[in-house]
Specification:
Number of strands: 6
Number of domains: 1
Strand order of the largest sheet: 3-2-1-4-5-6
Distance between the termini: 43 Å
Largest sheet: 6 strands, parallel
Oligomer: single chain
CATH architecture: 3-Layer(aba) Sandwich
CATH class: Alpha Beta
CATH superfamily: HUPs
Structural class: alpha/beta
Strand content: 15-25%
Length: 198
Amino acid sequence: MRIGIMGGTFNPIHYGHLVTAEVVRDRFKLDRVIFVPSYRTPYKGRRDLASSFHRYKMVKLAIEKNGYFSISDIEIKRGGKSYTRDTMKEFKKRFGKETKLFFITGADAIAQMPKWKKAKELPTLCEFIAASRPGFRLKRLPAQYQKHTHLVEVPALAISSTDIRKRLKKGETIKYLLPEKVERYIYKHRLYDSCWVR
């Protein structure tokens, strides 16, 4: 099997994430893409971070109609800071050596890979797919990472979770930036200090 693991905070999940997962699934002929919301990432602060419970629920709502997509709470159950190496080791154990794993994340995150926890182990666990906006240039990675990393341009990545949170704080519309069910969930639970409901 060929399985994509899409990690992130998904704070909130939006169409950029979903289009990326589908483009990568199609291009790399993946059997499944598993979304893995982090409990807490070591590289981002906690400001404006919705609880792992809400972020998990939003991902579940967003992917429910795609039979190739599923979700795992592996990092949420583990608690603490989420490290890619620990997560990929666990998936490798679950699926076995015959399964090829692909870790999908943003190109800006991939550029930091050499600084990740026990980074030298990562190429033995999976291939990396760096999703970028058109025109983005990935900073040159050391050779041991570069040969295991694929850059994929995704136009929908012009949408960002940060922009969505800013719009909510200003009372601006977020319609068509993310699935309608996720939009309704955000307003229902008043996430990101949104003070208005449609």
